[in-house]
Design brief:
The protein has a single domain, classed as 3-Layer(aba) Sandwich (Dihydrofolate Reductase, subunit A), CATH 3.40.430. It has 5 helices and 8 strands. Strands 4-3-2-5-1-6-8-7 form an 8-stranded mixed β-sheet, sandwiched between helices. Helix 1 packs parallel to helix 3. The radius of gyration is 16 Å and the shape is globular. The N and C termini lie far apart (38 Å).
């Protein structure tokens, strides 16, 4: 499988609490719900397509719990391609603390995570989609396990909250694969990691 990350971020890189005021208040975050007022039809259709095309999903623990509490309890799956995909396809969670996941179709990856993800990628064709899951995305990038990095950047500066990339981390060269802008100014960009960047001498 090809491992693709899909992350919604603000212009200043915040990915925390995009869906609603109570989605993720960790660290005293009180600016949740910043993405929904900006979501337009094009971005929504794109997300429906991305989730609908995934063969399986890989989550970090926190994002998994948010998704399970929202998408996992939906009863009318016909109303949402995202809900239909998430509830009908395999889900994997990278966690050392989650032992009894309640969301049907979930497996917990423990032990050597790099080997477990490598095995998943080698097992079948299709897309292994990583929604959100900032800490996991950073870890996957650091271990050269990401095939494509998709960013939906919303035209807003949130000013606080957890960012996709911290102040210090590995340096990664990226090749732009596709780029477009929706009617409400959301940019959708896909990148391919290319190892370490070159620096001017």
């Amino acid at each position: 499988m090809r491992l693709t990350t899909t992350t919604n971020v603000s212009v200043d890189g915040v990915m925390q609490g995009l869906g609603g005021p109570d989605e993720d208040r960790s660290g005293g975050f009180d600016r949740g719900g910043w993405a929904i007022p900006l979501l337009d039809t094009e971005a929504g259709d794109y997300l429906d397509q991305v989730y609908g095309g995934a063969a399986a999903f890989l989550f970090g623990r926190r994002t998994y719990e948010i998704f399970a509490g929202y998408w996992g309890v939906m009863t009318d799956l016909s109303a949402s391609p995202i809900a239909a995909a998430l509830n009908s396809r395999p889900k994997y969670v990278a966690s050392t603390g989650l032992t009894d996941p309640q969301w049907a179709g979930t497996s917990v990856l423990t032990g050597d995570l790099a080997a477990a993800v490598g095995d998943l990628k080698a097992q079948q064709d299709g897309e292994l989609l990583v929604p959100g899951s900032g800490a996991l995305v950073r870890w996957l990038l650091a271990h050269d396990l990401v095939d494509q990095l998709d960013l939906l950047t919303y035209p807003v500066v949130v000013g606080q909250g957890t960012r996709l990339f911290p102040a210090s981390g590995p340096d990664i060269a990226l090749e732009l694969v596709t780029s477009r802008t929706t009617s409400r100014g959301i940019t959708i960009q896909s990148y391919r990691p290319l190892g370490r960047p070159e620096y001017a001498r």
